[in-house]
Amino acid sequence: MQNSQNIAMVFMQKRKAVTASIINQILSIYNIHITDEALKVLVNTPRLTFNDISKYLYKDQIFIDKLGKVNGKQVAGVYIFTHKETGAKYVGSSIQLATRLNRYLSKTYRVNGKFLPFLGKEGIEN
What we know:
two-stranded antiparallel sheet, 7 helices, GIY-YIG endonuclease
């Protein structure tokens, strides 16, 4: 049985449109399943853009409504950070978006991988 990362890498190399079936294969280790209809809804959901999340985390009602509260209703989703100078992107996901972003802002995350050391060096404002 291939691990999720290998399945995702092979799929991305094929450059085909993503399907619920592929997502289900990748996320099967988490016992997560999505339908084609749910995927369609997710893909067509309007994105939110915040150019300075440190301003919005606790104050902006749209931000709170869409991403949840750190100590309240939690919202799952995907986020993308774009480095202002280079345009490089980091794509992440969380079942608790507000909590994840709060950890990034307060620097209470465990430093590992490639993104988190970069975030520590560059700062959330970049």
